[in-house]
Write a structure and sequence with these properties.
By secondary structure, this protein is of the alpha+beta class. It contains nine helices and eight strands. The chain has three domains: 73 residues, no CATH class; 99 residues, no CATH class; 156 residues, no CATH class. α3 packs antiparallel against α4, α4 packs antiparallel against α5 and α5 packs antiparallel against α9. The longest helix has 38 residues.
């Protein structure tokens, strides 16, 4: 803290008899011409010129202290460092001082996000909803990484948005697969582009939160334009393995709600065959890891494939008669095992995906009074 003392005839001439206050105005003084703000501003300018270098050095040390705290103790605050104003902090802040400032900023962002989600859910304009999804997903991701209560409440917001995106618009049409894709994970992104956990893969499967690499609508091979909707390289929590032959690889393909033309005999967008092709190409060594290394697979490496679409009558008939899939007990999905390439595949409806995610999180929503 810097204290500056101001002396002068003007102060002596304008002080009250009790010497408890001055007669000039705070903001502007038309009689004397010099206000309290004018005096304080000039005093601050003189003090700055006298000890400005020392103040700048102290600010640098404070900034270094904050960065050190984030990197060593609170990496989830990385995205907030540049947004929080730390000028009110003491020059030697404690961990508690820094954390309280972060929490205040997080709370402000969460309140703003909730307001935006509420506005989006109430909107009757489907174009507006689609345009705001990416922004909302980024905001939700940033505000849900610190404590469980906030994280669970943000999950509720995500599922509300996801449910809204599956509804028809004013023209009686469904959103494209891109809109729902962005809620699960933003397109044209991978783990190197997004902050830690800045996705909602838990909607698909909770285990995907522990993935070592995720690619969303990007080519796995820079020399090829072909790409899956989402490809995941899993790692087992117990072993922390990454590019290991025993770790599974998961591939997702999304189809627009109510779309069924991919089941036509002439279709070139057969999602089942797309996944099979990708599995074979990965096994043949046609793709590399992000670091340019071979993806290590062997005959026993497990693969999981998921097609998310609406199960229209034509799709069900196609799965049963042409693809030899077996229906699930709840009637909302089909599955098949491809033993030769160690691939287990499921074709599930958007309704099942949403319902299962809501069921897995229901107890948390109930505990927090969010149901």
């Amino acid at each position: 803290m810097v204290k500056a003392y101001v002396f002068g005839d003007y102060l002596n001439e304008n002080v009250t008899l009790e010497r408890g206050e001055f007669r000039f105005q705070t903001d502007s003084d038309l009689i004397g011409g010099i206000s309290q703000n004018d005096i304080e501003s000039k005093a601050a300018e003189i003090a700055q010129s006298a000890i400005g270098s020392e103040i700048a050095e102290r600010r640098k040390r404070k900034e270094a202290r904050i960065i050190e705290y984030v990197s060593s103790s609170a990496p989830w605050h990385n995205t907030l460092v540049k947004e929080v104003d730390f000028s009110a902090l003491p020059m030697q802040p404690t961990n508690q001082d820094i954390e309280l400032h972060f929490q205040k900023k997080k709370y402000e962002k969460e309140v703003a996000t909730r307001s935006q989600v509420a506005a989006a859910l109430e909107s009757e304009n489907p174009t507006e909803l689609g345009a705001r999804i990416a922004q909302l997903m980024e905001s939700i991701s940033e505000t849900s990484k610190n404590d469980l209560a906030h994280y669970v409440s943000m999950r509720k917001c995500v599922l509300d948005l996801f449910s809204k995106s599956l509804e028809i618009d004013n023209d009686g049409k469904h959103k494209s697969e891109g809109d729902v894709h962005d809620i699960i994970m933003r397109r044209k992104k991978d783990s190197d582009d997004l902050d830690y956990d800045a996705h909602n893969l838990w909607i698909l499967d909770e285990r995907l939160n522990f993935s070592s690499y995720v690619s969303s609508d990007k080519s796995l091979n820079k020399t090829r334009g072909d790409r899956t909707d989402i490809t995941v390289y899993n790692r087992r929590v117990a072993f922390r393995g990454e590019n290991e032959t025993s770790n599974p690889i998961t591939i997702f393909e999304f189809k627009k709600p109510q779309r069924d033309d991919f089941a036509d005999p002439s279709s070139k967008e057969d999602p089942v065959q797309q996944i099979v092709r990708y599995v074979n190409e990965i096994r043949e060594g046609k793709f590399k890891t992000p670091a340019g290394r071979d993806i290590l697979v062997q005959e026993t490496t497990p693969f999981y494939g998921y097609v998310v679409c609406d199960l229209a009558p034509k799709v069900k008939k196609w799965l049963q008669n042409d693809k030899n899939f077996t229906p699930m007990p709840d009637g909302l999905g089909w599955f098949q095992w491809f033993p030769n390439i160690k691939l287990y595949m499921e074709v599930i409806s958007w309704t099942k995906l949403l319902r299962d995610a809501q069921m897995r999180n229901k107890i948390f929503f109930t505990k927090l009074g969010l149901s």
